[in-house]
Structures are given as C-alpha cells and as structure tokens.
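User: Watch each token:
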Amino acid sequence: MRNFEFKNPVKIIFGEGQISKLAKEIPTDSRILMTYGGGSIKRNGVYKQAIEALDGYTVFEFGGIEANPDYDTLMKAVEVCKKNNITYILAVGGGSVIDGSKFISAAAFYEGDCWDMVVNRRNIFKAIPLATILTLPATASEMNEGAVISRRELKEKFAFSNPLLFPEFSILDPTVIYSLPKKQIANGIVDTFAHILEQYLTTTDHYMVTDRLAEGILKNLIDLAPNLLSKDELNYNDCANYMLSATLGLNGWTAMGAMQDWATHLIGHELTALTGLDHGETLAIVYPGTMKIMSSEKKGKLLQYASRVWNIVGESDEEMIEEVISKTEKFFNSLGIKTHLSEKDIDKSVIDVIVNRFEDRKINIGEKGIVTPKHIRMILESQY
C-alpha cells in the first residue's frame, strides 16, 4: 500500500424528504444562485421542494447547463454571479450540473483566462461555497473536488480539481431515480462501474481494504442493474443502494493508498468532445479495449477481478482473463449500451485524431504511464 493523505469534508444528507433541510444548512443571509439543467427538476418535483425549503432566501436561477457542461454556457452564469453578488451556489442536478457549478464557483473569482484554469489546472485561491441536490447518480461529483468541463467550440474536454470545490453538503434523495429515463440510469451504472475499475484494475500491491470495498460496489452494481432497468416501478431500497454506490465510487474511499489508472476516462473524454457520445457510452466502448490491450500489464488484477467479482474459475490465466473481459462487455451490453465505435456509426478517422492529440501533448497515461499513444490506437481499434 502506498502512502496517502485523505480528507473529504462533504456532509451527506441521505434519504427521502431530506430536501426540506436546505434552510438548516445554508446561511440565512446568502445570495443563492440555483443552477440546473434542462428543466426536469420542474417536472419531477425537486425544484418545488427546493424553492419551498428556501422560502425567505434571496434566490437567483440559472438553467440550461448541458450534459458535458459547456464553457460558454458556464461563463454566462459567472456573469450572473458577478452582477448579483452571489455568495452561495446550489447545484440541483446530476454530475454535469454539479461539475459546471464547481467551474462557476471558481471562475467567479479567477483572474485571467478561465479556460486556462481548466486545461492547465492553474491554482484556485477562492471559490463561492456550493452545495448540491443530486438528481442523477453517476459521477460522485456531489462528494468530491473534481469537475469535467467541455468547450464545444474547440472540441475539447478536460478535468480539473481543487479542494475548494468540495461541496459543503449534498442532499441525496433516492426517490429522484423513479423519474429518470432508463438510458440515464444505464449510463450512470457504467460511469460508476468504470470509476471503480479505474481505481481498482491496476496493480496487486496489498490493497486489501480498498480492493474489498471496490469489489463490493462492483458486485452491487451487477446485482442492482436488472432491477433498476427492467422494472417500471422501482424499489426504494434498490434506488438507495445504487445512489450510495455511485457516490462511494469516486469520493476517495476506494483510492486510499491505491495506484490509479484513468486512461479509459481520458480517452473517453476525447471521444465525447469529438463525437458527442454520452460519457457512459464512451466508457463502455473504451474499457473492454483497455482490458484487452493492457492485459499483460494488468494480469494479476484482472485475475483477481475475474475470481472475486465474477466468480470465474478457468483452466488457465489466459482463459480467465478472456472470460472476464467478455463478461464485462456483455454486462455493458445488458444495460442497452453498445461497446463498439462502428455500432455508433463513428468514422474510424476519429482514432487518428485522438492518437494525434495524445502525441502532441507528449504524455503517456494510465498507472505508471504504461498507456502510450500506440496503445491508445490499439485500444480504440480493438473496439471498432
């Protein structure tokens, strides 16, 4: 196990009806900017609950934050913050709204080019305090300090983070899942599954505690997926366990002392930026390819993953690895998500563009930099 420091200051308020506790958590003199996406919160009742809970507060609104939040949209919200002296941000939505709100929080005080703050991860010294009401479990942005921002004009997508971007608190009401489209639930399951694999599927260096945490969450997702996707009327406990699994997937717990990868996410970000594919769709395409091409380097952990998560017993290591990659890909398929670029009508030329971008940046990715641009080409070609 590696040396590490860990701190997660986010207060989680979990359960049905907990949105009513907003007023107990936000200072009464706050000037609040409520951020949200396309308006689903007004159809599912979350908006009404939030507004009622904030009765007596000064509340401004900014809607229209897209999936894969766009820089130009977010900069409009930054101007709203400056014009109205916003002192608190309440992000009501899924990972995109929360990520976008983290950017707004930091950009409101940032001196200089705010895109440079994202791309080059410039230091952030001040940010507007923020909190979240989660409506779509997937990214765990409600309990971490990271965000991923797109700039459609440039066809770019980058992640950045800072301790000032931890939400002060997050409200998680599992009943919001009842009204979600099945596709969003499926994408969220893939995203959570991939988050865990990025922190787990690396090396076998005595990560006993975090490995067992990771394996438990992976098995939860496998068990919960059929109920979440096949039933018209969802069970509260299924939704609650899924929501908590998604939050624990990237709140730092499974990363303590562990080697991490993130190659699949970085490749997936490029796919989204260039093709517009949903984030979950790109992960379902790239991850089986990463396991195939990097199977020698990840052999020990792939065998552990096969045995502990999928209960695979094979006559040889190679047979077990082949089977666990197949089972992972079939799991994604069972969610209704395709796992090959050709199935999404993506031209093969996009592979050259992505490889060239990594070559231009002169970086290798993955744990210990084991994934080179040559590997990236092989990963994408294996999933065409």
